[in-house]
Amino acid sequence: MARDYYAILGVRRDASPDEIKKAYRRLARELHPDVNPDPETQERFKEITQAYEVLSDPKKREMYDLGADPFAPGGGAAGGAGFGATGFPFSDIMDAFFGSTTSRGPRSRARRGRNATLRVELDLAETAFGTTRELAIDTAVVCTTCSGAGTAPGTHPETCETCHGRGEVQQVTRSFLGQVMTSRPCPHCGGYGSVIRHPCPECSGDGRVRTRRTIKVRIPAGVENGTHIQLAGEGEVGPGGGPAGDLFLEIVERPHPIFEREGDDLHCTVQIPMTAAALGTQVVIETLDGPEEVDIRPGTQSGQVIPLYGRGVRHLNESGRGDLLIHVNVETPTKLDEEQEELLRRLAKLRGEERPPGKFAPGQQGFFSRLRDVFNSH
């Protein structure tokens, strides 16, 4: 036996049937004459086909391993099961190039419904602490007249006369390999194997109708703008009474007049006069938990941040809360009467600040220094 079928397929002599089948399919895709029409490729394709025919048949493989001719009379060649006298494996060829040629049977009319998305607008307090909402949804539900079957009351789907309930029809075509039989969905019944001659008057055979329903939803604490909440099975019911899809709630957080949210922290700004910043005072701050008195220490500077720990938004699916950060803005008066101006001048004289020297704060630069740095960076 001159030919080494194992080497032709590129497998070991102890390769399993699955390994042999995978190797053949891989080579068949590469060497098929429709892909590579040159004569050398066609000869190579015939070689791997013959090798697979022998190694995929347990009896022929055993004879080949013993040194006998697997194609000798009485050697087990399957005449009539293949192509010509060599028993050409059509099912594997078709699996490799055209998909499975085995019967799949009729497909079900019931299919899963589509997912739906609903935008829900919430105030900051609702996203911070959670809430419960009743939502009205326009969606598809099971038709109560036919219970999802799609047929008129008292009737049933009838077996398709074209495919006789198989849901597919077979077609024989001729190719260089000979006659090839393929299966495709029945064009008359759409692959269902049955036809609805008397559709339901309520849903027109779809098995579902559109309506508005109300559901109660619990919004967890800590959600924020853009959060998506998945409600399994609350979407649209599928055609033919199939299972419902999912409903996704997209959270839209309304802007708050006082607070700006950054993660689970809240920010707000309080304005105080310069005398209060210098002498210190107390201010009442509105928080999500109600009014709270905050101490302003003497000498507080504009831009200083005062934290209120645990006064922010609750952490989503965790314990604890973020913080409330109060940004202080010190107001400088723009108009003074004579008495106020005189008092400030006396204060400036007492502090030696009648003509204070200009100083740059750390990290700040003048115009020419910044200009110099720009040129030095190039």
Note down, in words, how this protein is organized.
- With 378 residues, the chain is of the alpha+beta class.
- Among the domains are: 5-97, DnaJ domain (Helix Hairpins, Orthogonal Bundle), CATH 1.10.287; 260-350, Urease metallochaperone UreE, N-terminal domain (HSP40/DNAj peptide-binding domain), CATH 2.60.260.20.
- It is built from nine helices and 15 strands.
- The chain has helices spanning 5-9, 17-31, 39-55, 58-65, 90-97, 124-129, 274-279, 338-350, 367-376, and strands spanning 116-122, 131-142, 158-159, 168-175, 178-185, 194-195, 208-219, 228-231, 247-253, 260-262, 265-273, 281-287, 290-296, 305-308, 324-331.
- Strands 10-11-15-14 form a four-stranded mixed sheet. Strands 1-9-8 form a three-stranded mixed sheet. A two-stranded antiparallel sheet has the order 2-7.
- The relative contact order is 0.10.
Which regions have little confidence, pLDDT < 50, spanning 5+ residues? 75-102
How would you state the average pLDDT, rounded?
83
Determine the CATH superfamily of the domain at 5-97. DnaJ domain
**So what's the overall shape?**
elongated
Total of helices: 9
Q: Taking strands numbered 1, 2, ... along the chain, how are they ordered across the largest sheet?
A: 10-11-15-14
> The biggest beta sheet, please?
4 strands, mixed
Beta content: 25-35%
CATH class of the domain at 5-97: Mainly Alpha
Total strands:
15
CATH fold-level name of the domain at 5-97: Helix Hairpins
Helix content: 10-25%
Query: Would you tell me the structural class of the helices and strands?
Result: alpha+beta
Please name the CATH architecture of the domain at 5-97.
Answer: Orthogonal Bundle
Oligomer: single chain
Radius of gyration computed on alpha carbons: 41 Å
* Terminal residue distance: 78 Å
Order of helices and strands: HHHHHEHEEEEEEEEEEHEEEEHH
